[in-house]
Amino acid sequence: MRLPLGLALLAAAAVGLDPGGQLENFERRTLDARARQHAAPTSHTERIVILDITEETIERLAPLYGRWPWPRALHGEVAEYLAADGATAVGFDLLFAEAATRREVDAAEWEGLAALARSADLAEVRGELARRIEALQPGLGDREFVASVARAGNVFQAAVFAPTPPGAQGAAAAVAPPVPVAARSEAAVRGQALLPFAELARASRGIGHINALPDADGTYRRFAPLLWQADRQAAYPSLGLAIAAHVRGLPLASLRRTPDGLAFGDGVLPLAADDSAWIRFQGGILQRAAGGGETFQSHYRHLPYELVLAAKDLRAAGRESPLAADTFRDKIVLVSAQAAGLSDLRATPFSPVTPGIEIHANIIDSLLAGRFLRAPPSWAAWLLTLALCLAAALMASKLRFRLGVPLFLGLAGGFAGAAWAAYGAGWVLPLVPPLAALAIAFGGMLLARAALAERDKRWLRTAFGHYLAPSVLEEVLRQPDKLRLGGERRRMTVLFSDVAGFTGFSEKLPPEEVSALLNGYLDRMTACVAQTGGTLDKFVGDAVMAEWNAPLAQPDHAARACETALLMLEEVGRQSTAWQTAGGALEIRIGINTGEMVVGNMGSHQVFDYTVIGNEVNTASRLEPLNKAFGTRIIVAGATRREAEEQRPGHFVFRPLARVSPKGRAEPLDIFELVGWQEKLDAALRERLVLFEEAMAHYLARRFDEAQQAFSKVLERQADDGPAQAFVSLCEGHLAHPPPAEWNGAFMQTEK
Q1: Last residue of one domain, picked from the residues 370, 387, 421
Q2: pTM, full prediction
Q3: Domain membership of residue 585 as a residue range
Q4: Measured between alpha carbons, how far is residue 324 from residues 80, 84, 327 in Å?
């Protein structure tokens, strides 16, 4: 688990660095593709109308109003006309930052004034001359513009904010910021402001900035709903936000920040850490151009500016208008200059030359529809990437290549599809960096797995003895044919040992502590087997299985097994302190049997094990749990006791226990307790053993009363003598319920 986690962390960190920004460039391309895929008009799209001042417009109106810029009163007339026709709001994407201070006179007007002056003695001429001179006042157009805007009551003006140049002082704006929201990021604070001149600002319904936020590639995907100047406690709205709030009937003073963004009516506009927001584009139609390629056609209705002027003048003259009455009823009208040198073309996900007014239209549209985009915090995106990398690394580490690769491709494709679909639900999830991290984690884990496999192969060649007893390894190296399946019959001794109460003890401790204690115990038990030249067959949980007299011949195999059992008990005494500290007791039970068995490699051609099988092996496994019934620690079969005494005369001390019928064996079997080494027995223990043999003679002769008294004498000398306690209980049972006449003293084993 540590290696997959480490690779996952490394992959997630690597894509976060993104040297050269290549991943970010690909990510932006997918963002544009997602924006195009999920773009769709809303119920408010048809409400937005754009009036375009194009080169054709300027050329057509030049004979009437002169060259650009036209008298500002003209815009006021248009605003009044739109308001009278039912427009909900009118927004100018034109900047009127300064009041007009002079008025230029073209040649035709100058000649007309000169002709009037030459005939000034006529009263009618003097009146016309006075009227024309009055019209040349520099501030007259501004006053008429301001008056028209005030009468319309729904006109919004544009403003531009810029950072304070180094060493300069930010100038306070003439109009106070209307949104009572404090700045959270320095990135949204500006020092310089170009606002409409004061009279126009006061006459307008509202002011909104038209600042844009291009990404590093120059494409506009985000905007600044709010910008702050010197007072960081109140903000200026964007033109789109100001108009949308007016249409929704929301006072700008009611806007508040929430943990998720900016509360806007019954919704929340999500804000990033720098107080920017994603633009939810409504899209358009791609049309094939005559010269090849495609052009983008917006969903919003565009009308020429001069068409509205013509409709205004014709309707005032009582003539037929090119625009029907109520054309602008409940419409949001945006006025923008599209002529060369005047237009602000911007790159968007749909076109590299999108008019800037389209961005404002999309912002208003999404705000009114409540269709917002939100991105997870950077830490959440990183955790998502890490989780995906960890899943990929685990696939590569645990699964076969044939299964792991399809699952990895499914994971990558599933995430890509989910991220793509999430955009439609309003979530901008990272796509390219997580996929790159996935590939790094999966590929890195495959390489690491290959390197580990190669290392393991080298290790197995040099360290095979870690898994086989040295004697087995030597025999295999000497005779490789031993690795073939099959076995041979031999007379052998087999030992089974088990930890008493291990299951209950392991439930009280964490798995790591249990593993550490068990590993230490098994390591010492293995050493005891190796010390007597035995072959460690296998571990089964806490159980140990070992055998003697294979693969090498060991004539004293029974004695070796008995010596191993006593060595195990000594090691248990040394190991018990650690187990007691952990809250348990280390007690083991051992069963040993000697007989004819089959030994060799058992299993399949792909996987096999060097082991012993046969009825005598099963008998040995049944002897081990008998210790629980007799309160002993080592029980050996009669054959083992006999051969051990023949092989090491006077070396061991055995106590006869009973004739038993082990579960699964038809014939009764004499069993004995291996008490210890002869030379280590004290006088008290020898005396108890003599008394126990006398008691056993009474027991087998069916004199249960005398046997019970004799066993009780043993308990008087050693109260915890397990076999004496067991036979006292047996005597009580036989006295209460005498055994049948054919009873031969056999003890029936009922548990494995």
Answers
A1: 370
A2: 0.60
A3: 481-680
A4: 16, 13, 6
